[in-house]
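Narrative progress, year one. The postdoctoral researcher (J.K.) led the effort to move from monomer predictions toward full complexes, under supervision of the PI. The following entry was the first complex the group processed end to end, covering 1458 residues in total.
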Amino acid sequence: MSVDVEFDQVVKQFGPVQVLHGVSFKLQAGRTVGLIGENGAGKSTLMKILSGFESISSGSLRINGQPMVFASSRQAEEQGIVLIHQEFSLADDLTIAQNMFLGHEKKRGWLLDEASMQAEAAQAIAQVGLQADVNTRVRHLIVAEKQLVEIARALLRRARLLIMDEPTATLTPGETKRLFALMAQLKADGVTLVYISHKLDEVQQVTDEVVVMRDGQFVTREDTAKLTRQQMASLMVGRELANLYPPKAPHLPSAKPVLKVTGLTVPGWAEDVSFEVHPGEILGFAGLVGAGRTELFEGLLGLRPRSAGQIELQGRVVDLRSPRAAAQQGLTYLSEDRKGKGLHVNLGLRENLTLMTLQRYAHPLLDITAEKAALTTAVDDYGIRTGSLTSLASALSGGNQQKLALAKVLHPNPKVVVLDEPTRGVDVGAKSDIYTLIQRLAREGLAVIVISSELLELIGLCHRVVVMRNGRLQAVLEENQLTEQELITHATGTH
Amino acid sequence: MPQEPTKTLPTAQAAAPWLGRLQGLGPVIGLVLLCVAGTWLNSNFATVDNAMNVLTRTAFIGIIAVGMCFVIVSGGIDLSVGSMAALIAGSIILTMNALAPMGLSPVMVVVIGMALAILLGAAFGLAHGLLITKGHIEPFIVTLGTLGIYRAYLTYFSNGGAITLDNDLSDVYSPVYYASLLGIPIPVLVFLVVALLGGVILNRTAFGRYVQAIGSNEQVARYAAVDVDLVKILTYVLLGVCVGIATLLYVPRLGSATPTTGLLWELEAIAAVIVGGTSFKGGAGSITGTVVGAVLLSVISNILNLTSIISVYLNAAVQGFVIVGVAFTQRGRR
Amino acid sequence: MPQEPTKTLPTAQAAAPWLGRLQGLGPVIGLVLLCVAGTWLNSNFATVDNAMNVLTRTAFIGIIAVGMCFVIVSGGIDLSVGSMAALIAGSIILTMNALAPMGLSPVMVVVIGMALAILLGAAFGLAHGLLITKGHIEPFIVTLGTLGIYRAYLTYFSNGGAITLDNDLSDVYSPVYYASLLGIPIPVLVFLVVALLGGVILNRTAFGRYVQAIGSNEQVARYAAVDVDLVKILTYVLLGVCVGIATLLYVPRLGSATPTTGLLWELEAIAAVIVGGTSFKGGAGSITGTVVGAVLLSVISNILNLTSIISVYLNAAVQGFVIVGVAFTQRGRR
Amino acid sequence: AEKVVLGVAIPAATHGFTGGIVFWANQAKKDLEKAHPDLQVIVKTASGAPEQANQLQDLQTVNKINALVIFPFESASLTKPVAQVKGKGVYVTVVDRGLTDTSAQDAYISGDNTAFGKIPAEYLAKTMGGKGNLVAMRGIATTLDNERMDAFNSVLKAHPDMKLLDAKYANWNRDDAFKVMQDYLTRFKQIDAVWAADDDMAVGVLKAIDQAKRTDIKIVFGGAGAKGMIKTLMDGKDPRIQANVSYSPKFIYDAIKLTAEARLKGEKLPATYIIPSVLITKDNAAQFYFPDSPF
Ligand SMILES: Nc1ncnc2c1ncn2[C@@H]1O[C@H](COP(=O)(O)OP(=O)(O)OP(=O)(O)O)[C@@H](O)[C@H]1O
Ligand SMILES: Nc1ncnc2c1ncn2[C@@H]1O[C@H](COP(=O)(O)OP(=O)(O)OP(=O)(O)O)[C@@H](O)[C@H]1O
Ligand SMILES: [Mg+2]
Ligand SMILES: [Mg+2]
């Protein structure tokens, strides 16, 4: 009852840009396959073709030996093929339950059977560990919650081939563990699983075999057991990778704090949080989904009401009422919600990159040449892979969008930068480049705050880590205290 | 990590619907305040007769606004409804006049005319839908174009004058507008039925759900295997049918169609929808709000007609202030 | 990741702008076809005089459309521009008439009137911007309200009739509309300047970039440290100023303001923007397109004036067909 | 003789009366072009003052007219544009709405707006014995509408017992008149007569009265002599329709004809020619009945 897939010389072109150059390989029924590759390698595109979201330019697709052409995702679903998108595909104005059943509504006669849909949706979100009312509008969810809704929705489809495109990019270890348990169960039921992730430890943990793609081509397949993480990384990138985490910049404790926050309260989300960060320091924020880290910083930036607290930037007490005020004081913020808050996907790369620093290019007319030069530099510095420098941000792969977003918030040369899940969906090679960049900037005196759900990233990157739980500051761990165990116990309150 | 979930979630959730409901009340509160003002300004305002007058004359715009609500929620717009109503009115009057001498019973002729109104509405709506989805033209442009086209053809058919229904047909037809059932005028009843149906379709059927999904995020709807084009086409057809119904109620009122018939109805219908709390950007909307919005707009002019405290020149200003004021009470909804 | 950059780069770059340009040409192609048709129908169409006439009369709508383009690109809308123009026209005529007997030189009076037009436009725009951003009311509702308010006040000031500029002032003022510089009528020159400035502001300044960013995604713009409220307010002020400029050119033409002055200009201005290829949903737009759109719309009626092949009743239908037809040539732009 | 190219600029057909104007203008074109091979008539309709000004320009520059008959959309607004055309040597006949500067025209042919307001007021005063409650409808806010209303009011001044309860805009539109009348009926329990001021509006008024089954209203006075109303008057079908005031759109036909024939002969027209508005009653109604006109 499981699905067996064969790609044969699959080619995909977007206009003049060819992104898949004749990919051929087989997915065996009942196995869990890890699909890995650099950002822009074509993983998502290939899987969108398999699940009927994109058309195939040439080549063919065989399901259980039968050639298939899917005109829509519905036809793929009829074959039991379901994709969990890398980018959320939820309608903000609809509720969780409405989104989960969109296009597959249950009916009683002419009318919708809301009660049974809500009941089933509630069950499915409970399965993935989301505690929420299914009648909440998706607009009000945080990204991790949206991700869980996506997973729960796919579960409802009773897939025989389930493709997960970066399902854990925004999840914390707890949710991730629960997801793996679910996957094991599905596998036991005979479901074929495709798992795309840049978290190679996870790939190692859950998959039977690994398929590697590079530059729109199939590179190799191998049993997972036969590969080390290091080997996976090298196969993806096509070169030997040095240590993922570069040496940390020297910590300068003597310097005065550049950002000092005292007793900050964001009603409903964070209470009485105090911390400080020094020039050249990389300060991590750990916590579970819903710990209130994102909202704390949104409050700091004036995007949410604050009820108490004092903010000192570079020794001066400031009243930040908007991200604009913050940016003027040298504080910028990278949102975890790339599409909703981070990038203008309908604008070009150049427009995105320079949006926060336009004053620099306006004399008073914008110097487009200088902007273009800046984009070329950024594309190199951050390893942004794009078919064209003039394309829209929406044409970038997920990871490359993330790199662009990162480049954008660092472009103003801030004194303090807050990076919320900075490497979400970024491949190992680029990750290591980004880490190197962050260390370099820290060495140059930038204070970096990293909010991350990847504990290893915090450990490998930060000088100190603040652990939050339920909107309160739980602990501040020094560099020598940074272990996964320590972080988890503080985050869950089981210390 | 089930051990300690998100403490703030319950409050947030509890608060949201309650708040939502309060904000949704904006237009209702506005309407109530207006009615109080009306009663205070003229004691005849709060009579059953006046209420029925207002509701009856709201019926046309109200019925169209219900259809318009679907189009706006789906992220579209239709500027042509007023001209469409005029052309439908003219066409069915001409058809009925032509059929009358052919030996059919007048009742039969009127029934054919009414059916034709709905058919024409559906056909015009279909044309809009096809041009918008298959022709990939902005709804604003399509319906701006047809606005001119429909009205021009009516003017052409009427030679710039009035197209008038034959007298005996008029007598047979007029109860459709003037009669009452259980004390409630037929147009009000029809309005009620259309609004109820509209509410059920928008909130309780898959089609309605798709309309909201498309307005909220077309790409997402497409990904969810919703037949976006079909749903969009259907919203325009539905609006066309509503225009047809409004027109078939309208024709017996004056028994004629002129080049001014339905002038600016599009603006009134759109205004009813938006004043009722539906966002111009689509995604979410309320039929109840739309109905309240439509009634509110006609109550304003009713009150202005019932009083003379303000210079006639300033009527439009009073309407403007009230509209902005009502919107202010429900500000920040999204 | 310098090791293997973007091998497809050259092709993509070469192709994309070319394709974009072709699609952007939709309205231009439409305009060219229309001009060919015009010349074929009446040989006098392709004369300098006629061209100047058409451009001169396009100037009002065109100037307003340039401002409207900003508002629409930012995701807003303004329905009130026609009424605003009428009220500004009325106000400055009244002011000038009142100033004339006070000993000021007529030139001075006219200059004051012109300055007042721009000031009033800016003030009305500011009011819209504040209501929309600080009052959190939908632009559609705010400007629907002010549409009524402005026109009502004009009607009130004019007592339902016309407000007419004193004759001697009129003589001083009239060159502003009727004179030419280097053979080009002043309104055309002003239109040109406004369009050029508009194009530069939209495409080459930080403000213009912010306008596009806000229309594309307001939330993202806010996170990217854009002062969203301020930019939105400024778009409405800019539009108000454009209305002021259009009005100060309009007044010397007809020398009066009446309750029908500027009627439906909002529809024409919005149509010019949308026909010019700007999306009604905001995010991206083109001033060149807007200018072409405005000219295209007046060429249609110019051609209709020059020929009599079609029943006068059907003028609006021809316009409708041409608008939809032009839109069709550039379909599927987004 | 020189070939005459005659431009006709009139408002677009938006209600019965302007519909009639357009009809009669086209009728004139048909009749006159047939009768005079040297004559070309070009009819243009405008839906606003600026559009009409544009048309004047086009007629002059491109169609090269040498005579113009214009029914100005607005008096004040079109004075300058018409003066421009006249300045280029075109012979100008202005119809109905006079320009604010009479030097911009060669001839003026008009209906009588003062009589249009005065005759109904006098008729009502006479038949109602100088007392009673009145309501009135107004058209669209224009100078023309003001003239009529002022004339009506000035007659009422002489009859202190005739009370004008209210006069609201119904935009020369049947639907608006229906609504305004409904609300008048709600508001005023005793109305003796209605001055609907236009036959289109009278249609809406009558329907509203019928619906309310009110019998207190004894007279509904329309205006302009639409064929439907004249027919009703002739047949005596509705006791409330007792009289009308003539203001026939046919004067545009006469104006075109007079101008064309004068120009063909190289003659001039008298500077001013007022087509009197007269009271229409059952007795003389047949004279004003044009079954072929849309109005
Ligand atoms: N709509 C599009 N138009 C043009 N190019 C596109 C489009 N969608 C994707 N691409 C290009 O196709 C390539 C492959 O993208 P894809 O999303 O499949 O990468 P991926 O392997 O999933 O990367 P990531 O790990 O970053 O998610 C990228 O270079 C991307 O820029
Ligand atoms: N708009 C909202 N309405 C209701 N509840 C919300 C809303 N936004 C967030 N929440 C809730 O507030 C809590 C705090 O979320 P927050 O995004 O701050 O967590 P976080 O620590 O940033 O998590 P993450 O690791 O995902 O970044 C969560 O329980 C979330 O469900
Ligand atoms: Mg991807
Ligand atoms: Mg977060």
